[in-house]
């Protein structure tokens, strides 16, 4: 799911309470009860062989990894008719479906939305689902489970596991006489000097960015690097923590040092990050923090001359850190077939199904005469088995280093704490970063964001 979609979700959520009140979502009048048709179901109602129609929103599953898992579900539950509304999760579409009294049976969304939707009563607690289908929550990585847990109750089943490391254009570094190890986040002064040394411009036109801090999206990562927690354990916002302010100040300065935001953004927006003209291959951005899925994209650029390197992201004490992202399955209130939805979640994220997905990925790798770059899931047991069975030393040393760096990051990553105002907090800090990039002091930008987020948090708690 894209960051833009998460922001859209935050804006759309302003109407959730009104919509759910009008629709009667989760009430007895809307089908609530203990027959397995809504959030009041018992564990027994969730067990057994499901049948009927299963409507899914937000999941395409069109690649071999998705298709192999869909096939596994259909083989296990032939009496379930799967109806997918393909395309990524759309908050407005979801809320409209709720207000009309016709919600999907299952949604696939960014995990950071779970706290907000759970607080609004829009998605069901999965206590009975987990019990009824005997879902082993211990198979999932604790950080992923935490991100779908609100007030000690699980509201989602986590799927993929997205972490970040520094990806580096080794060819440009070699030409500049710079060791890839100098791309690091422990010593901020040194990183700033490295970025300046690598930066190139012609007149007012940027030719190469030395280090892209990837604002606005990576602000939570910079806050984490500096020891700040943007969301407290109780779900309240902590956006203007002094360490967060310092982190934003620094990351914005990196942009200012390299052409300023207007030129920087225009330069970055001109890239095709999915093709052979991506910035690492073309040498137009020397390094940036990037997620693990991107290695699959870059693999196709090896013939175009890409020389990849990678370094871990660390905090200022040198300990490896990463933000954690990924998707989750959740059952909306008022779902007509929660039993099938629960069976789907279990099947799609089980170790056996992930092994089938890895087998399908390996078949595609062999067909393409390529190499396996890993399959990063929230299921630790599956990840370990896939790594042991399929991951070998990559024929390209830079990619081998990157893959190993990503794997070394998995157990170091942490997600933002779930919050009843999670989507609104997300929107508030994004707006603050945009204002800071536009010239507003970081302290002022984050003070305003904190006020907005705190208002949303207090309102959510009152609701």
UniProtKB/TrEMBL annotation:
Residues 448-463 have a biased composition (Basic and acidic residues). Keywords: Signal. Residues 29-46 have a biased composition (Gly residues). It comes from the Bacteria. Residues 28-47, 443-463 are annotated as: Disordered. The keyword Nucleotide-binding does not apply. Residues 1-23 form the signal peptide. Gene3D superfamilies: Periplasmic binding protein-like II. InterPro entries: Bact_solute-bd_prot1 (IPR050490), SBP (IPR006059). This is Extracellular solute-binding protein.
